[in-house]
Amino acid sequence: MSIKLFELLLQASIYTVTISVVSILIGFAIAILLSGMLLSGRSLFVRPAQIFISFFRGVPLLVQLLLIYNLLPVIGINVPSVVAAIIGLSLCTAAYQAENLRGGFASVPLGLVESAEMVGLTPRQVFRRIKVPIALRLTFPALVNEAILILKASSLVSVVGIVELTRMAQDLAGSTFLPLQIFASAGLIYLMINWLVALAGGMIENRLPGVPR
Amino acid sequence: MKKNSLLKGLVGAVFLFGATISAHAADTLAAVKAAGTLKVGTETAFAPFDFIDAGEHVGLNVDLFNEIGKELGVKIEWVTLPWDGVFPALEAGKFDVVAGPATITKKRMERYRFTPPLAEATIAILKKAGDKTINKPEDIAGKKIGVGKATAQLDQLKEFSETLPTKVDIREYPAFTESYADLAAGRIAGVANSLPNIAFVAKQREGTFEVVLPPFGKKSYFGFIGLKDADHAPLMDAIDAAMLKIKADGRMATLQKKWFGASFDTPDSVKDPAF
Protein backbone atom coordinates (compact mmCIF):
# COMPACT_ATOMS: atom_id res chain seq x y z
CA MET A 1 0.00 0.00 0.00
CA SER A 2 1.36 3.34 -1.00
CA ILE A 3 2.02 6.34 1.24
CA LYS A 4 -0.56 8.25 -0.80
CA LEU A 5 -3.35 5.88 0.28
CA PHE A 6 -2.31 6.16 3.91
CA GLU A 7 -2.35 9.94 3.61
CA LEU A 8 -5.88 9.80 2.24
CA LEU A 9 -6.95 7.70 5.21
CA LEU A 10 -5.34 10.21 7.59
CA GLN A 11 -7.12 13.07 5.84
CA ALA A 12 -10.45 11.29 6.17
CA SER A 13 -9.76 10.65 9.84
CA ILE A 14 -9.75 14.43 10.35
CA TYR A 15 -13.50 14.26 9.69
CA THR A 16 -13.80 11.39 12.13
CA VAL A 17 -12.00 13.32 14.87
CA THR A 18 -13.58 16.73 14.22
CA ILE A 19 -17.15 15.46 14.08
CA SER A 20 -16.63 13.26 17.13
CA VAL A 21 -14.99 15.95 19.26
CA VAL A 22 -17.59 18.59 18.40
CA SER A 23 -20.40 16.11 19.07
CA ILE A 24 -18.95 15.01 22.39
CA LEU A 25 -18.63 18.63 23.58
CA ILE A 26 -22.13 19.62 22.44
CA GLY A 27 -23.42 16.36 23.87
CA PHE A 28 -21.76 17.12 27.22
CA ALA A 29 -23.43 20.54 27.37
CA ILE A 30 -26.83 18.98 26.65
CA ALA A 31 -26.07 16.21 29.16
CA ILE A 32 -25.45 18.76 31.93
CA LEU A 33 -28.83 20.29 31.19
CA LEU A 34 -30.52 16.88 31.07
CA SER A 35 -28.94 15.61 34.28
CA GLY A 36 -29.97 18.87 35.96
CA MET A 37 -33.52 18.21 34.83
CA LEU A 38 -33.34 14.62 36.10
CA LEU A 39 -31.97 15.70 39.49
CA SER A 40 -34.46 18.56 39.89
CA GLY A 41 -37.06 16.11 41.19
CA ARG A 42 -39.89 18.02 39.50
CA SER A 43 -41.84 15.87 37.07
CA LEU A 44 -42.25 18.88 34.77
CA PHE A 45 -38.49 18.60 34.09
CA VAL A 46 -37.85 14.96 34.88
CA ARG A 47 -40.41 13.53 32.43
CA PRO A 48 -39.17 15.30 29.26
CA ALA A 49 -35.58 14.42 30.14
CA GLN A 50 -36.56 10.78 30.64
CA ILE A 51 -38.41 10.69 27.30
CA PHE A 52 -35.39 12.25 25.55
CA ILE A 53 -33.01 9.75 27.09
CA SER A 54 -35.14 6.71 26.41
CA PHE A 55 -35.57 7.77 22.78
CA PHE A 56 -31.92 8.45 22.05
CA ARG A 57 -30.70 5.42 23.98
CA GLY A 58 -33.41 3.18 22.58
CA VAL A 59 -33.18 3.94 18.86
CA PRO A 60 -30.07 2.77 16.98
CA LEU A 61 -27.76 5.62 16.04
CA LEU A 62 -27.94 4.61 12.38
CA VAL A 63 -31.72 5.09 12.41
CA GLN A 64 -31.38 8.42 14.25
CA LEU A 65 -28.95 9.70 11.62
CA LEU A 66 -31.23 8.69 8.76
CA LEU A 67 -34.21 10.26 10.54
CA ILE A 68 -32.40 13.54 11.12
CA TYR A 69 -31.07 13.65 7.58
CA ASN A 70 -34.27 12.66 5.79
CA LEU A 71 -37.04 13.78 8.15
CA LEU A 72 -35.89 17.25 9.18
CA PRO A 73 -36.41 18.55 5.61
CA VAL A 74 -40.06 17.49 5.94
CA ILE A 75 -40.48 20.15 8.63
CA GLY A 76 -38.60 22.64 6.50
CA ILE A 77 -35.14 22.34 8.07
CA ASN A 78 -32.75 21.14 5.39
CA VAL A 79 -29.42 20.71 7.11
CA PRO A 80 -26.13 19.87 5.36
CA SER A 81 -24.56 16.46 5.92
CA VAL A 82 -22.02 17.64 8.49
CA VAL A 83 -24.70 19.32 10.59
CA ALA A 84 -26.97 16.27 10.42
CA ALA A 85 -24.07 14.06 11.53
CA ILE A 86 -23.20 16.34 14.45
CA ILE A 87 -26.83 16.66 15.56
CA GLY A 88 -27.25 12.87 15.49
CA LEU A 89 -24.07 12.07 17.37
CA SER A 90 -24.55 14.92 19.89
CA LEU A 91 -28.10 13.98 20.83
CA CYS A 92 -27.21 10.32 21.12
CA THR A 93 -24.14 10.85 23.28
CA ALA A 94 -26.02 13.46 25.37
CA ALA A 95 -28.50 10.76 26.42
CA TYR A 96 -25.71 8.45 27.59
CA GLN A 97 -23.63 11.19 29.21
CA ALA A 98 -26.68 12.51 31.09
CA GLU A 99 -27.22 9.09 32.64
CA ASN A 100 -23.53 8.93 33.55
CA LEU A 101 -23.69 12.36 35.20
CA ARG A 102 -26.90 11.52 37.04
CA GLY A 103 -25.26 8.34 38.31
CA GLY A 104 -22.21 10.34 39.40
CA PHE A 105 -24.26 12.82 41.40
CA ALA A 106 -26.35 10.04 42.92
CA SER A 107 -23.15 8.33 44.10
CA VAL A 108 -21.82 11.29 46.10
CA PRO A 109 -21.63 9.85 49.63
CA LEU A 110 -24.42 11.27 51.76
CA GLY A 111 -22.09 11.37 54.77
CA LEU A 112 -19.83 13.87 53.00
CA VAL A 113 -22.74 16.14 52.15
CA GLU A 114 -23.98 15.99 55.74
CA SER A 115 -20.54 16.75 57.13
CA ALA A 116 -20.23 19.72 54.79
CA GLU A 117 -23.57 21.01 55.98
CA MET A 118 -22.48 20.44 59.58
CA VAL A 119 -19.45 22.69 59.19
CA GLY A 120 -21.72 25.43 57.87
CA LEU A 121 -21.42 25.32 54.09
CA THR A 122 -24.42 26.75 52.25
CA PRO A 123 -26.30 24.45 49.79
CA ARG A 124 -24.65 26.34 46.95
CA GLN A 125 -21.19 25.77 48.39
CA VAL A 126 -21.99 22.12 49.03
CA PHE A 127 -22.94 21.74 45.38
CA ARG A 128 -19.94 23.56 43.98
CA ARG A 129 -17.24 22.34 46.32
CA ILE A 130 -18.42 18.87 47.27
CA LYS A 131 -20.95 17.46 44.86
CA VAL A 132 -19.57 18.68 41.50
CA PRO A 133 -15.92 17.66 42.04
CA ILE A 134 -16.85 14.26 43.40
CA ALA A 135 -19.50 13.56 40.77
CA LEU A 136 -17.11 14.64 38.02
CA ARG A 137 -14.40 12.42 39.35
CA LEU A 138 -16.78 9.48 39.57
CA THR A 139 -18.15 10.16 36.07
CA PHE A 140 -14.91 10.89 34.31
CA PRO A 141 -13.84 7.36 33.36
CA ALA A 142 -17.31 6.78 31.91
CA LEU A 143 -17.03 10.01 29.91
CA VAL A 144 -13.71 8.94 28.41
CA ASN A 145 -15.30 5.63 27.57
CA GLU A 146 -18.20 7.42 25.89
CA ALA A 147 -15.78 9.57 23.87
CA ILE A 148 -14.12 6.44 22.54
CA LEU A 149 -17.48 4.88 21.71
CA ILE A 150 -18.52 7.99 19.78
CA LEU A 151 -15.23 8.05 17.87
CA LYS A 152 -15.94 4.53 16.72
CA ALA A 153 -19.66 5.14 16.13
CA SER A 154 -18.75 8.08 13.89
CA SER A 155 -18.09 5.48 11.19
CA LEU A 156 -21.88 5.46 10.76
CA VAL A 157 -22.10 9.07 9.55
CA SER A 158 -21.19 7.98 6.04
CA VAL A 159 -24.91 7.19 5.60
CA VAL A 160 -25.61 10.93 5.58
CA GLY A 161 -22.90 11.61 3.04
CA ILE A 162 -19.67 12.16 4.93
CA VAL A 163 -16.52 10.47 3.73
CA GLU A 164 -14.91 9.75 7.08
CA LEU A 165 -12.25 7.18 7.84
CA THR A 166 -14.34 4.02 7.39
CA ARG A 167 -16.04 5.24 4.21
CA MET A 168 -12.72 6.35 2.72
CA ALA A 169 -11.29 2.93 3.54
CA GLN A 170 -14.24 1.26 1.78
CA ASP A 171 -13.84 3.51 -1.27
CA LEU A 172 -10.11 2.88 -1.47
CA ALA A 173 -10.50 -0.86 -0.90
CA GLY A 174 -13.04 -0.91 -3.71
CA SER A 175 -10.85 0.94 -6.19
CA THR A 176 -7.49 -0.63 -5.32
CA PHE A 177 -8.62 -4.18 -4.41
CA LEU A 178 -6.30 -4.10 -1.40
CA PRO A 179 -8.92 -4.54 1.34
CA LEU A 180 -6.60 -6.20 3.83
CA GLN A 181 -3.91 -3.52 3.83
CA ILE A 182 -6.40 -0.66 3.77
CA PHE A 183 -8.70 -1.88 6.52
CA ALA A 184 -5.68 -2.81 8.64
CA SER A 185 -4.39 0.75 8.23
CA ALA A 186 -7.81 2.21 9.06
CA GLY A 187 -7.94 0.01 12.15
CA LEU A 188 -4.50 1.21 13.16
CA ILE A 189 -5.54 4.85 12.80
CA TYR A 190 -8.65 4.29 14.95
CA LEU A 191 -6.46 2.53 17.50
CA MET A 192 -3.99 5.43 17.59
CA ILE A 193 -6.73 8.05 17.97
CA ASN A 194 -8.45 6.16 20.75
CA TRP A 195 -5.17 5.40 22.49
CA LEU A 196 -4.47 9.15 22.53
CA VAL A 197 -7.95 9.83 23.93
CA ALA A 198 -7.44 7.23 26.65
CA LEU A 199 -3.99 8.65 27.43
CA ALA A 200 -5.28 12.23 27.67
CA GLY A 201 -8.21 10.99 29.75
CA GLY A 202 -5.87 9.26 32.16
CA MET A 203 -3.73 12.38 32.53
CA ILE A 204 -6.72 14.63 33.20
CA GLU A 205 -8.12 12.09 35.65
CA ASN A 206 -4.93 12.21 37.70
CA ARG A 207 -5.26 15.96 38.04
CA LEU A 208 -8.86 15.92 39.16
CA PRO A 209 -9.46 16.56 42.84
CA GLY A 210 -9.27 13.23 44.58
CA VAL A 211 -12.04 11.30 46.20
CA PRO A 212 -11.51 10.44 49.84
CA ARG A 213 -11.27 6.71 50.29
CA MET B 1 -50.95 5.67 27.54
CA LYS B 2 -50.26 9.37 28.02
CA LYS B 3 -46.84 9.07 26.44
CA ASN B 4 -48.41 7.34 23.45
CA SER B 5 -50.87 10.12 22.67
CA LEU B 6 -48.14 12.72 23.16
CA LEU B 7 -45.99 10.90 20.62
CA LYS B 8 -48.88 10.67 18.16
CA GLY B 9 -49.56 14.37 18.51
CA LEU B 10 -45.91 15.18 17.96
CA VAL B 11 -45.66 13.05 14.83
CA GLY B 12 -48.90 14.55 13.53
CA ALA B 13 -47.63 18.06 14.16
CA VAL B 14 -44.39 17.31 12.36
CA PHE B 15 -46.21 16.12 9.26
CA LEU B 16 -48.75 18.95 9.30
CA PHE B 17 -45.94 21.47 9.55
CA GLY B 18 -44.10 19.69 6.77
CA ALA B 19 -47.13 19.80 4.48
CA THR B 20 -47.57 23.56 4.88
CA ILE B 21 -43.87 24.17 4.25
CA SER B 22 -43.61 22.09 1.10
CA ALA B 23 -46.65 23.87 -0.33
CA HIS B 24 -44.49 26.99 -0.49
CA ALA B 25 -41.57 25.39 -2.35
CA ALA B 26 -40.42 27.44 -5.30
CA ASP B 27 -39.36 26.73 -8.87
CA THR B 28 -36.15 24.70 -8.47
CA LEU B 29 -34.45 25.95 -11.65
CA ALA B 30 -34.71 29.52 -10.36
CA ALA B 31 -33.47 28.36 -6.95
CA VAL B 32 -30.48 26.52 -8.47
CA LYS B 33 -29.56 29.51 -10.62
CA ALA B 34 -29.90 31.89 -7.68
CA ALA B 35 -27.66 29.67 -5.54
CA GLY B 36 -25.20 29.22 -8.43
CA THR B 37 -24.79 25.53 -7.59
CA LEU B 38 -26.52 22.39 -8.74
CA LYS B 39 -26.44 19.79 -5.98
CA VAL B 40 -25.98 16.29 -7.30
CA GLY B 41 -26.39 13.18 -5.18
CA THR B 42 -24.51 9.99 -5.97
CA GLU B 43 -22.60 7.04 -4.60
CA THR B 44 -18.90 6.85 -5.38
CA ALA B 45 -18.85 3.12 -5.99
CA PHE B 46 -20.07 2.68 -9.57
CA ALA B 47 -17.03 2.80 -11.83
CA PRO B 48 -16.62 4.12 -14.47
CA PHE B 49 -19.53 6.49 -13.82
CA ASP B 50 -18.56 7.52 -10.35
CA PHE B 51 -15.63 6.27 -8.34
CA ILE B 52 -12.70 7.21 -6.19
CA ASP B 53 -9.40 7.02 -8.01
CA ALA B 54 -6.67 7.28 -5.40
CA GLY B 55 -8.88 9.55 -3.33
CA GLU B 56 -10.25 11.67 -6.15
CA HIS B 57 -13.87 11.57 -7.26
CA VAL B 58 -13.75 10.91 -11.01
CA GLY B 59 -15.78 9.27 -13.74
CA LEU B 60 -18.13 9.86 -16.62
CA ASN B 61 -20.68 11.50 -14.28
CA VAL B 62 -18.17 14.03 -13.01
CA ASP B 63 -17.15 15.04 -16.54
CA LEU B 64 -20.70 15.03 -17.86
CA PHE B 65 -22.10 17.08 -14.99
CA ASN B 66 -19.29 19.58 -15.41
CA GLU B 67 -20.52 20.04 -18.99
CA ILE B 68 -24.15 20.28 -17.82
CA GLY B 69 -23.04 22.85 -15.25
CA LYS B 70 -21.42 24.92 -18.00
CA GLU B 71 -24.62 24.81 -20.05
CA LEU B 72 -26.72 25.92 -17.07
CA GLY B 73 -24.13 28.41 -15.85
CA VAL B 74 -23.85 26.85 -12.39
CA LYS B 75 -21.26 25.00 -10.34
CA ILE B 76 -21.70 21.34 -9.39
CA GLU B 77 -21.71 20.30 -5.75
CA TRP B 78 -21.51 16.55 -5.04
CA VAL B 79 -23.22 14.79 -2.14
CA THR B 80 -22.12 11.17 -1.80
CA LEU B 81 -24.34 8.63 -0.08
CA PRO B 82 -24.68 4.84 -0.05
CA TRP B 83 -26.89 3.91 -3.02
CA ASP B 84 -29.93 2.80 -1.00
CA GLY B 85 -29.90 6.17 0.77
CA VAL B 86 -29.86 8.23 -2.42
CA PHE B 87 -33.55 8.08 -3.33
CA PRO B 88 -34.92 8.92 0.16
CA ALA B 89 -32.49 11.85 0.29
CA LEU B 90 -33.57 13.05 -3.16
CA GLU B 91 -37.18 13.11 -1.97
CA ALA B 92 -36.11 14.91 1.20
CA GLY B 93 -34.63 17.65 -0.98
CA LYS B 94 -31.01 17.02 -0.02
CA PHE B 95 -29.97 17.55 -3.63
CA ASP B 96 -31.59 18.52 -6.92
CA VAL B 97 -30.79 15.50 -9.05
CA VAL B 98 -29.23 12.04 -8.72
CA ALA B 99 -26.23 11.16 -10.88
CA GLY B 100 -26.17 7.43 -10.21
CA PRO B 101 -26.92 6.76 -13.00
CA ALA B 102 -29.84 4.40 -12.62
CA THR B 103 -31.21 1.90 -15.10
CA ILE B 104 -34.39 3.33 -16.59
CA THR B 105 -37.15 0.99 -15.40
CA LYS B 106 -40.96 1.08 -15.48
CA LYS B 107 -41.18 1.03 -11.69
CA ARG B 108 -38.79 3.93 -11.27
CA MET B 109 -40.47 5.92 -14.06
CA GLU B 110 -43.71 5.84 -12.09
CA ARG B 111 -42.03 7.76 -9.29
CA TYR B 112 -39.10 9.62 -10.83
CA ARG B 113 -38.22 11.48 -13.96
CA PHE B 114 -35.27 10.33 -16.06
CA THR B 115 -32.92 12.40 -18.19
CA PRO B 116 -32.04 11.24 -21.72
CA PRO B 117 -29.95 8.04 -21.49
CA LEU B 118 -26.17 8.39 -21.32
CA ALA B 119 -25.20 4.73 -21.70
CA GLU B 120 -26.53 1.23 -22.28
CA ALA B 121 -27.31 -0.71 -19.10
CA THR B 122 -27.80 -4.24 -20.38
CA ILE B 123 -26.50 -6.72 -17.84
CA ALA B 124 -23.52 -9.10 -18.14
CA ILE B 125 -21.36 -11.26 -15.87
CA LEU B 126 -17.90 -10.54 -14.54
CA LYS B 127 -15.90 -13.63 -13.53
CA LYS B 128 -12.44 -14.34 -12.19
CA ALA B 129 -9.86 -14.50 -14.94
CA GLY B 130 -9.28 -18.09 -16.01
CA ASP B 131 -12.47 -19.47 -14.46
CA LYS B 132 -13.30 -22.30 -16.89
CA THR B 133 -16.65 -23.12 -15.29
CA ILE B 134 -18.38 -19.98 -16.60
CA ASN B 135 -18.23 -19.54 -20.38
CA LYS B 136 -21.70 -18.21 -21.15
CA PRO B 137 -24.33 -16.41 -19.04
CA GLU B 138 -26.32 -19.66 -18.50
CA ASP B 139 -23.34 -21.21 -16.68
CA ILE B 140 -24.05 -19.14 -13.56
CA ALA B 141 -26.94 -21.50 -12.67
CA GLY B 142 -26.53 -22.59 -9.04
CA LYS B 143 -23.50 -20.35 -8.52
CA LYS B 144 -22.98 -17.49 -6.06
CA ILE B 145 -23.36 -14.25 -7.98
CA GLY B 146 -22.97 -10.82 -6.41
CA VAL B 147 -25.12 -7.83 -7.31
CA GLY B 148 -25.89 -4.41 -5.85
CA LYS B 149 -28.73 -4.10 -3.36
CA ALA B 150 -31.74 -2.07 -4.57
CA THR B 151 -30.42 -1.97 -8.14
CA ALA B 152 -32.17 -2.68 -11.43
CA GLN B 153 -29.41 -5.20 -12.15
CA LEU B 154 -30.75 -7.23 -9.22
CA ASP B 155 -34.19 -7.39 -10.88
CA GLN B 156 -32.63 -8.33 -14.21
CA LEU B 157 -30.55 -11.06 -12.58
CA LYS B 158 -33.59 -12.44 -10.73
CA GLU B 159 -35.57 -12.60 -13.98
CA PHE B 160 -32.71 -14.40 -15.73
CA SER B 161 -32.30 -16.76 -12.77
CA GLU B 162 -35.93 -17.90 -13.20
CA THR B 163 -35.13 -19.15 -16.72
CA LEU B 164 -32.30 -21.42 -15.52
CA PRO B 165 -32.62 -25.09 -14.45
CA THR B 166 -31.03 -24.32 -11.05
CA LYS B 167 -31.56 -20.88 -9.56
CA VAL B 168 -28.65 -18.50 -9.12
CA ASP B 169 -27.47 -18.06 -5.52
CA ILE B 170 -27.85 -14.26 -5.49
CA ARG B 171 -25.74 -12.29 -2.99
CA GLU B 172 -26.74 -8.66 -2.50
CA TYR B 173 -24.10 -6.03 -1.69
CA PRO B 174 -24.48 -2.45 -0.43
CA ALA B 175 -22.13 -1.32 -3.22
CA PHE B 176 -20.75 -2.99 -6.31
CA THR B 177 -17.14 -2.32 -5.32
CA GLU B 178 -17.59 -4.67 -2.36
CA SER B 179 -18.87 -7.40 -4.67
CA TYR B 180 -15.80 -6.98 -6.90
CA ALA B 181 -13.59 -7.32 -3.84
CA ASP B 182 -15.40 -10.52 -2.86
CA LEU B 183 -15.04 -11.84 -6.40
CA ALA B 184 -11.31 -11.14 -6.28
CA ALA B 185 -11.16 -12.91 -2.92
CA GLY B 186 -13.01 -15.93 -4.36
CA ARG B 187 -16.08 -15.67 -2.11
CA ILE B 188 -18.42 -15.48 -5.09
CA ALA B 189 -18.21 -16.87 -8.61
CA GLY B 190 -19.26 -13.73 -10.45
CA VAL B 191 -20.81 -10.27 -10.35
CA ALA B 192 -23.81 -9.27 -12.44
CA ASN B 193 -23.69 -5.63 -13.48
CA SER B 194 -24.24 -3.54 -16.56
CA LEU B 195 -21.79 -4.18 -19.36
CA PRO B 196 -20.11 -0.71 -19.32
CA ASN B 197 -19.37 -1.10 -15.61
CA ILE B 198 -17.89 -4.57 -15.69
CA ALA B 199 -16.03 -3.94 -18.94
CA PHE B 200 -14.32 -1.03 -17.16
CA VAL B 201 -13.52 -3.09 -14.07
CA ALA B 202 -12.11 -5.93 -16.19
CA LYS B 203 -9.96 -3.47 -18.12
CA GLN B 204 -8.66 -1.93 -14.88
CA ARG B 205 -7.78 -5.32 -13.43
CA GLU B 206 -6.67 -7.36 -16.37
CA GLY B 207 -5.52 -10.77 -15.18
CA THR B 208 -7.88 -10.59 -12.19
CA PHE B 209 -11.28 -10.32 -13.90
CA GLU B 210 -12.86 -11.28 -17.20
CA VAL B 211 -16.18 -10.40 -18.82
CA VAL B 212 -18.51 -13.23 -19.79
CA LEU B 213 -20.07 -12.34 -23.14
CA PRO B 214 -22.66 -11.83 -24.45
CA PRO B 215 -24.71 -9.55 -22.21
CA PHE B 216 -28.06 -11.17 -21.45
CA GLY B 217 -31.63 -10.12 -20.88
CA LYS B 218 -33.41 -7.21 -22.49
CA LYS B 219 -31.73 -4.01 -23.63
CA SER B 220 -31.85 -1.25 -21.06
CA TYR B 221 -30.36 2.20 -20.57
CA PHE B 222 -28.89 4.42 -17.88
CA GLY B 223 -30.28 7.86 -17.11
CA PHE B 224 -29.91 10.45 -14.35
CA ILE B 225 -32.85 10.82 -12.00
CA GLY B 226 -34.87 13.74 -10.72
CA LEU B 227 -38.21 14.39 -9.08
CA LYS B 228 -41.40 14.33 -11.14
CA ASP B 229 -43.32 17.18 -9.49
CA ALA B 230 -44.13 20.53 -11.07
CA ASP B 231 -41.53 22.37 -8.96
CA HIS B 232 -38.74 20.31 -10.47
CA ALA B 233 -40.04 20.33 -14.08
CA PRO B 234 -38.17 23.51 -15.19
CA LEU B 235 -34.89 22.20 -13.74
CA MET B 236 -35.27 18.76 -15.30
CA ASP B 237 -36.25 20.32 -18.65
CA ALA B 238 -33.09 22.42 -18.54
CA ILE B 239 -30.89 19.41 -17.69
CA ASP B 240 -32.54 17.37 -20.50
CA ALA B 241 -31.91 20.17 -23.00
CA ALA B 242 -28.28 20.50 -21.85
CA MET B 243 -27.69 16.76 -22.20
CA LEU B 244 -29.22 16.59 -25.66
CA LYS B 245 -27.03 19.51 -26.72
CA ILE B 246 -23.94 17.77 -25.29
CA LYS B 247 -24.96 14.62 -27.16
CA ALA B 248 -25.65 16.46 -30.43
CA ASP B 249 -22.30 18.27 -30.58
CA GLY B 250 -20.33 15.07 -29.92
CA ARG B 251 -19.12 15.83 -26.39
CA MET B 252 -21.11 12.86 -25.03
CA ALA B 253 -19.44 10.45 -27.48
CA THR B 254 -16.01 11.81 -26.52
CA LEU B 255 -16.74 11.21 -22.85
CA GLN B 256 -18.10 7.72 -23.52
CA LYS B 257 -14.90 6.92 -25.42
CA LYS B 258 -12.81 8.26 -22.58
CA TRP B 259 -14.52 6.14 -19.93
CA PHE B 260 -15.81 3.05 -21.78
CA GLY B 261 -13.24 2.83 -24.56
CA ALA B 262 -16.05 3.10 -27.10
CA SER B 263 -18.97 5.37 -27.83
CA PHE B 264 -22.44 3.99 -28.42
CA ASP B 265 -25.82 5.01 -29.67
CA THR B 266 -28.48 5.80 -27.13
CA PRO B 267 -32.02 7.00 -27.84
CA ASP B 268 -32.92 10.60 -26.97
CA SER B 269 -35.48 9.36 -24.51
CA VAL B 270 -36.81 6.07 -23.19
CA LYS B 271 -40.61 5.97 -23.12
CA ASP B 272 -41.25 2.28 -22.56
CA PRO B 273 -38.38 0.47 -20.80
CA ALA B 274 -38.10 -3.34 -20.99
CA PHE B 275 -38.11 -3.75 -17.19
Describe this structure in words.
The complex is a heterodimer of chains A (213) and B (275). Chain A has 8 helices and no strands. Chain A is mostly helical and 213 residues long. In chain A, α1 packs antiparallel against α2. The termini of chain A are far apart. The mean pLDDT of chain A is 92. Chain B has 275 residues and is of the alpha/beta class. Chain B has 10 helices and 14 strands. In chain B, strands 1, 5, 6, 7, 8 and 14 form a 6-stranded mixed beta sheet that branches. In chain B, strands 11-10-12-9-13 form a 5-stranded mixed beta sheet, sandwiched between helices. Chain B has a 3-stranded antiparallel beta sheet with strand order 2-3-4. In chain B, β3 and β4 form a beta hairpin. The longest helix of chain B has 21 residues. Chains A and B meet through α1, α3 and α7 of A and α1, β3, α4 and α7 of B.
Question: What is the strand and helix layout of this fold?
Answer:
The complex is a heterodimer of chains A (213) and B (275).
Chain A: H1 3-40, H2 43-58, H3 61-71, H4 81-106, H5 110-118, H6 123-153, H7 165-176, H8 179-207
Chain B: H1 2-22, H2 28-35, E1 37-42, E2 45-46, E3 50-53, E4 56-58, H3 60-72, E5 75-80, H4 83-91, E6 97-103, H5 106-111, E7 112-114, E8 119-120, E9 123-128, E10 144-148, H6 152-162, E11 169-173, H7 176-184, E12 190-194, H8 195-204, E13 209-216, E14 221-227, H9 233-248, H10 251-260
Parallel strand pairs in B: 1-5, 1-6, 10-11, 10-12
Antiparallel strand pairs in B: 2-3, 3-4, 6-14, 7-14, 8-14, 9-12, 9-13
Helix pairs in contact in B: 2-9, 3-9
Q: Can you give the mean pLDDT of chain A?
A: 92
Question: Helix and strand string of chain B, N-terminal first?
Answer: HHEEEEHEHEHEEEEHEHEHEEHH
Kindly state the number of beta strands of chain B: 14
Percentage of residues in strands of chain A: under 5%
Give the strand tally of chain A: 0
Q: Report the structural category of chain A.
A: mainly alpha
User: Biggest sheet of chain A, in brief?
Assistant: none
